[in-house]
Amino acid sequence: MVSHEATPAQRNTILTLSTLAFTLMFAVWLMFGVLGIPIRKEFGLTDVQFGWLTAIAILNGSIWRLTFGLWTDRFGGRKLLSGLVGLTAIPCFMVAGAQSFTQLMVCAFLVGMAGNAFSVGIAWNSAWFPRDRQGFALGVFGAGNVGASVTKLIGPTLITLVPVAGLMGGVVPGGWRFVPFLYGISCLAMAVAIWVISPRHDHTPGAGRSLRELLRPLAEVRVWRFSLYYVVVFGAYVALSVWLPKYYMDVFGLPLQQAALLTTLFIFPASLLRPLGGWLSDRIGARRIMYWVFGSMLFALALLSAPNGHIVLYVPERVSPGGELNVARFVMNPWLFTTLIVVVGCAMGIGKAAVYKYIPEYFPRDVGAVGGLVGLLGALGGFFLPPMFAYAYKFTGVPQTTFAILFLVTGASLIWLHWVVIHIMHRATPQLQHEFDTKH
User: Fold this and answer.
1) Which of 1, 247, 257, 351 is most buried, judged by most C-beta within 10 A?
2) CB neighbours (10 Å) of residue 306?
3) What are the structural domains of the chain?
4) Amino acid 155: pLDDT
């Protein structure tokens, strides 16, 4: 519950600090999307090994989200966020010193703890902001997803500029190892800033309540429906953020720096439009927003799922030499592909805020638990999708199966949303449910 003693300055301080911390933690969480490329080359990884390396960090950034949400409601966001950010520095330094694929997998799992900063920030901001501003506030905080682009922007340059031998006689590692080292230093500085600058007192809506009471809302089907929506707008976003650089390189033959830059064109709208999604949800409702989100995603994903090729018609020799006629030739070029990916990113950015607008409306006293579970299951989608992409590509040889998988999940979400809306309309006006049947 929001305290009446909270001042706008205190709320804005918490929103600013949590958003900056989440941006950093998101960059740490998804850094293997870019670092995995030189790592794959150095350690000779297969596509499946690469998929699991990127996915293992996402796993640990998913499974603790419910726990961190509950802890935040009980103990306060100041303690949880500063502690989590500070401790994340340790596995960052470990990544910088890893010498084998096994070590990298262990380090990637540990560094994935950074992804749980989302649950802490959502619960912390919800406790401080009034209901009529929660959609916008949570949207601004969620824009920290743009951290996924940080490594895309600075990673290739730093990898090139910092010598592999390192700096200061090797004390500071070089090449790709410099990036996690830099993130480790940044995490320590950010943890100190949160602890020193944020208000000393904190709001703890879960204090004094039993664990059973805190978990009771999770039995509602509505929570699991919101979770499926979040798999589409967030889990798929996470998966694509780490998968797209490789896709650009393998399918279109682009160099790493260009592939990473084009991936940021997806990440920026998928992150920075989140405040707009929160603002729109505050005014016209999350349900209406989700219809537009799913509809636009299905349109773009349908085109992205189409493999390169053409239809062959067998015709008489006099019509075409060889008795064959190629028609409906389709080849996806990088610019059309990027345009469609940006459409998907815009929809995801708005949709992520709309999903979390639902939560404080239906569960105002249980944002930590419900938001944690929705974030957990949504992020687990980001864990399972990269290996699914890898195995689908391995078995079919068609890279576009990536988007066919996303099309199916998005379609299922839209069907469930529409079924719920129809059910609500029938329950509200049962006398009208047969009025629009076509009679023959």
Assistant:
1) 351
2) 12
3) 8-432 (1.20.1250.20)
4) 79
